[in-house]
Amino acid sequence: MSAAGFAAGASAPRPGARRVVFVGGLDDGRRTVEVLQAHPGVELAGAFVLDDEVGTRVSGFRTFDDLLAPPVLRKIRRIRDHVDEIRELAPDVVFVVGFSQIIPQALLDVPPRGVIGFHSAVLPGRRGCSPLIWAMVDGLTETGVTMFYMDAGIDTGDVIGTRSFPIDEDDYSGDVLRKADDATIALLREHLDGVLDGTAPRVSQEGAEATYTPRRGPADGEIDWSRPAREIVDLVRALAPPYPVAHTFGGDGVPILVERARAVPGLELPPPRYRRDDPMRTRVLCVVAHPDDEVLGVGGTLALHAEAGSDVTVLIMSEGEQEKLSETPRCATRRDCALAAAEEMGVTRVLFHDFPDQRLETVPFIDLIKAVEAAIDEHAPTVVYTHHGGDANTDHQVVFKAVYAALRPMTRLGATVERFLTFETPSSTDQAPQVEGYTFNPTTFVDVEPVWDHKVKALECYPTEMIGGRHPRSFSYIEALARVRGGHSGYLLAEAFVSVRERIARPAVAAASAAPAAPQTTQTTQTASTTAAPR
Questions:
Q1: Third-level CATH fold of 3-214
Q2: Who's near 370: CB < 8 A, 6+ residues apart?
Q3: What residues does each domain of the chain span?
Q4: Which ranges in 380-506 belong to alpha helices (H)?
Q5: Coil, strand, or helix at residue 482?
Q6: Does the global pTM surpass 0.70?
Q7: At what angle do helices 365-379 and 394-406 cross, to 10 degrees?
Q8: Does the structure show a pLDDT above 90 at 322?
């Protein structure tokens, strides 16, 4: 082709110039093209860059439209589809910079001076994927760039040269990328003449010294808050723009992107409000027949859940007063008592229904089930507590059956609950026949000694329900029962439960199917390859 036949942006043929093909993108790719265009010994025969539609899914994508024009500029989707075109251009050398598709062997065989790539690490160490990201995630204080002859292996070709640079403590990925780009261009300028005339160094890599960094995906950007603060900060720095940014999730599953972070060990702040690994931190629903049942049976456990930061809902099905015996004290403000007890335990909310006291068996069963289902649907508990099914109190039996029906394991709502437990209620569970089918045989115990005062104060919110002497609803009896259950389990004071059902699933799998999708920026520049090093 004559000089007049070249389109705008093409290098005019020069006597003795070597024909060069460029494959790549990103900032270092653009700067490489500028160096090649300005070099008197280079005839830029073609530049193969990603099509705009594909490129916009690549972190740090840049167009070349202002540098080159067709026919030199050729926009592609997959390099393997253009090997024949490159062969027809008869290049002496091919430069691959800022490109993360595997270079096929057919293309490696085309140029007599070789295919030259750049890897963002000092080879043979840290071959493979995402070397710059891994360098920052791993807390390195120095890394570099290697210019090398590409072959069929993963970053295994002969080395032309290396250039190192520091990773400063306050560097983010954009800062390190600029240093890597500068190192790439410095190596190119240093060795370009040698590559063109075939005198560039060729130093074989020592396989015994090779290490590899693995492929990264979007899920690897999730912050693990159990890791040390320095590691979390390093992850945030490594995935800052132009990469897809580190992420975490809110309690509602909505992704939160974290672009910047710093560890401040000397800063004085209150201690963490909640332990993130606390098994008591979950979403809780406690369904009871009457006000006071929730404190008598499970008050200490609910207080522990609340202290751990749980969302705790108590659902009370009946007001519990209408059918009291004539000699039994009545309480016109029993709902207020329930709210006061809930405040003492730290319960998030109390829901009330007005089904008839001591006559729940007269209510259409479907109405009771729907009341429980509505609470499950709205508050999405993962743990549910309710009465033991063998209690002497008929209302307790009916509530157990309604909760069980609402939590049938093959239903949509039942499938969301991980643990379903029943508790004992003094003056009801202990008054049932101690024969098979009624006996409360606990299998799970909770240490409630740390919150025992909260349980006692919550019980004091029901002055008409607490009875002295030998009655099971006396304070002395309730503490004695807790001591017995503590003796069964190795605690001083404990509340006991029968586990009706426990479901164990892999949390990551469940979260992936239920939560909104994580950030979708494609990390094309971070795939494994025999390519111009993934950044």
A1: Rossmann fold (3.40.50)
A2: none
A3: 3-214, 283-505
A4: 394-406, 452-460, 475-489
A5: helix
A6: no
A7: 60
A8: no
